[in-house]
Amino acid sequence: MPSIGNFSGTKLREIVVSSGKILELLRPDANTGKVHTLLTMEVFGVIRSLMAFRLTGGTKGEQLGSDCCFA
Fold it and tell me: Name one Pfam family in it (predicted).
């Protein structure tokens, strides 16, 4: 279940992907067509859904997930 947004504040498109209890931050490279992993984190719990949102006046995206506890 991917979620697309600007999560690291760099004004670049990024992708957050979850698989079970693993959360990954990915960034596509427009020049090579490859996707690079920026961060992989194991969380305490199981991520069942993700949704990107931005706080009013904010410059980077945030993630909201259900049924998860971050370690």
Answer: Beta-prop_RSE1_1st
Q: Could you read off the pLDDT of 25-44 as tens digits, one per residue?
A: 899 998 999 999 998 988 87
Kindly give the pairing relationship between strand 35-42 and strand 2-5. unpaired
Longest CA–CA span in the chain (Å) reads 37
Task: Write the CB contacts of 25 (distance below 8 Å, at least 6 apart in sequence).
Answer: 7, 8, 14, 15, 16, 37, 38, 39, 40
The answer on pLDDT for 10 being more than 50 is yes
What are the C-alpha distances in Å from 19 to residues 29, 41, 70?
22, 11, 14
Question: How far is the C-alpha of 70 from the C-alpha of 23, rounded, in Å?
Answer: 10
Start-to-end CA distance of the chain, whole Å, equals 20
